[in-house]
Amino acid sequence: MAKLVEMDERIRIFTQMEEDVGPVILINKFSVDPNEFDQFLKGYATDNEKFKQQPGFISTQLYKGIGGSAPLLTMLFGNLPHTSREQLIML
Predict the structure, then answer these.
(1) Torsion over CA: 12, 14, 15, 21 (sign)
(2) H or E element that contains 14
(3) What mean pLDDT do residues 55-66 have?
(4) More confident residue, 61 or 12
(5) Which of 32, 50, 72, 80 has the largest count of CB atoms under 10 Å?
(6) Order of strands, edge to edge, in the sheet holding 57-64?
């Protein structure tokens, strides 16, 4: 199972998303067992379709390490109103 890794140990991602600011780049780091990568990718594709429906959505990117590296990074770009951020938390 994929595990979301907090980028800042002092402030959780969900707390940061409560801020009402302009355009954002949401960066998530996941630790994924290499045997579960295909399952993670399917879930990412499903969530990505939900992201595309959000007002202000611009794009998402998925980055995977090379040489058997397990961490994955996802980046979401958007000018998301506060309500959309709340919906993203629920995804």
Answers:
(1) positive
(2) helix 13-16
(3) 87
(4) 61
(5) 80
(6) 3-5, 24-31, 71-78, 57-64
- SS3 assignment, position 84: helix
Q: pTM of this prediction?
A: 0.65
C-alpha to C-alpha distance for 71 and 74, rounded to whole angstroms: 10
Phi, psi for residue 68 in degrees, rounded to 5:
85, 10
Q: Position of tokens 């045997």?
A: 35
CA atoms within 13 A on the CB side of 59: 2
Is residue 13 within 8 Å of residue 7, measured between CB atoms?
A: yes
Residue position matching structure tokens 């990412």: 44
**Which residues, 6 or more positions from 8, have their beta carbon under 8 angstroms from its beta carbon?**
16
